[in-house]
Design brief:
The chain has 64 residues and is mainly α. The protein has one domain. It has three helices and no strands. Helix 2 crosses helix 3. The protein is elongated.
Length: 64
């Protein structure tokens, strides 16, 4: 099994927030639209990363 340090996992949240806000701010100028788009982008990113992690975990379980 792949072990990852908790410190690395703690970096995910601020990076996710920063990336989502920057991506949203490049598309909109109003604060409410920026926050709405940032929320959707963050949710999409978390779901995507979760699916990738689940696929990797399944592949490791299947192979090992």
């Amino acid at each position: 099994m792949i072990a990852i340090s908790v410190e690395y996992l703690l970096w995910i949240l601020p990076v996710l927030v920063a990336v989502s806000l920057v991506m949203a701010a490049t598309r909109h100028e109003r604060t409410d639209l920026i926050l709405s788009q940032a929320w959707r982008t963050g949710l999409w990113t978390v779901c995507f990363l979760g699916i990738v992690a689940a696929l990797i975990r399944f592949a490791i379980w299947r192979i090992g």
